[in-house]
Amino acid sequence: MPRVEPSKPQFDYLVAEDQFPAMVAGFGAGKTEAAVLRSIFGKLKYPGLNRGFYCPTYDLVRMIAFPRFEEALTKLGIQYRLYKSPLNYLEIPGYGKIFFRSMDTPSRIIGYEHADADVDELDTLKADDAAEVWRRILSRNRQKKPDGKPNTVGTTTTPEGFRFVYRTWRQHPQPGYRIIQAPTHSNPHLPDGYIESLRDIYPEQQLRAYLRGEFVNLASGTVYHTFSREMNHTDAVEKRGEHLHVGMDFNIENMSAVVHVIRDGLPLAVGELTGVLDTPAMIDLIKERYADHKISVYPDASGGSRKTVDASTNDLALLKKAGFKVVADKSNPAVRDRILSMCGMFCNANGDRRYLVNTTRCPEYTTGLEQMAYNRHGAPDKTKGTDHVTDAGGYFITKMFPVVKPKKPQMKRVVGLV
């Protein structure tokens, strides 16, 4: 078998004999590779017994888990047969099966059993959902081992605030629960500039989690905590004929839009439209106020099916019919991604403030950015009415200035054990 070279956290996780080890890692620390190799080596150790491998969604099983297992097994010189949907298992001849399952529908974690399991990115689930998934995985983990050792479940995840992994492994750990911390810099195979590029796009609070692998509060205080009325202010206004970029949120009798220009490659919010009755009224207002401008609209993607005025024409179709360029995906980005994009643009870990707002011309947008808070469930509080205009700005920012993690290198050598 080829020699494999782990980082120290990877090695500690691969050889951990604890019943429930958790590798809590920063971006690029090699947690998924460690999970794949722990699964393979564990499978070889117990021929004839099954193993489970869990990802947050089936798309991640298909796009991440399947290719990673195929690559690792090929480099290790291990023969295998992979059965994709609907069977979703990998068989190593003479050694048994590895079942692949998603965690987005816990009720489907039934009808099979294994001796050990590996769970990737458990903390991306809401705490209650993660707890339910964990209970169901443990209930599947019941094949008896010939050496009498306990059934194990390993977890690899990026910390997402004080969620299930924090509560279970750090706050109230039971015997057998062990945390192995893996900061990004522990991976010697990262390309030059990877860590610096993360600093460019993430605010400091997120970097403590995503770079150092620390548990930090990502859902307290104000949502847009990096925004400053003073330091993110600009006196800029649109110039005659300038291309305008309008983020838009659809709500019957309370539509909102934030008007931007892009100068030197960076966005400036120069106006807002709030409390508008419906989409036709918004179109008329934009045409009246910005008659001499090219207009691109970045709307709430749900407008493809929503009608704010009647049942005959959806909102996106109305915008296109008005002559506006509509820039929208089939679905909205995750709320978490939109918040990260906004916070990173308002101020990244290097102190760069790349998104400025004319707070005089955008008073409600400014108030929303200052006051939007999290509710007790850790989600943005939508009961105060400040979310419509901030959502509008966020659709534009997330589309044009998304948080895109730098690509990690392909696995040039299998990291792990000899």
UniProtKB/TrEMBL annotation:
Domain Terminase large subunit gp17-like C-terminal: 246-398
Keywords for the protein's UniProt record, in alphabetical order: Viral release from host cell
Coiled coil: none
Lineage of origin: Bacteria, Pseudomonadati, Pseudomonadota, Gammaproteobacteria, Oceanospirillales
Protein known as: Terminase
Species for this entry: Halomonas alimentaria
InterPro entries: P-loop_NTPase, Terminase_6C
